[in-house]
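ugh ok fine here u go
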Amino acid sequence: MRVLGVDPGLTRCGVGVVEGVAGRPLTMLGVGVVRTPAHAELGHRLVAVEQGIEEWLDTHRPEVVAVERVFSQHNVSTVMGTAQASAVAMLCAARRGIPVALHTPSEVKAAVTGSGRADKAQVGAMVTRLLRLAEPPRPADAADALALAICHIWRAPAQNRLQQAVAQHAQHAQHAQHAQHAQHAPKGRTR
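structure:
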């Protein structure tokens, strides 16, 4: 599985591509940051983020895009920019028919470090170790993007099994409901 991880941000949008399957060594195919100038008009910044993500999609052709789920912080303007950059990443993927997965920061930290409360340095250190890199990717946004991709690769098999189980349960419940209705339906008259 090839996953593009996106750590959304307007000034620095981290991007990283990881390939592999759960239980096997993973390979980093690329890591970087899409940057926009803080003084530029919002619309131009969003276009720059879109163009940057489109380049990554063209170059690496991921099967899935994993985006950090935006959560409420104390700084509303930061959350707005993050949410807008997140929406751009999801739009770019959806336009190409690429599935998008959202992961919370604590899910990513727990998957990569074992603790949902790990700090940026711990995440960077584990990403470095898991991908067998010479040094942690800089800035932290780039390491976070790789962590998102790793998290998705590791969590996807379990999530798929869970979705299949839920779908099977719903299908069985629907069949049982149809059988019950058929049993209680009025019988046609016979002569």
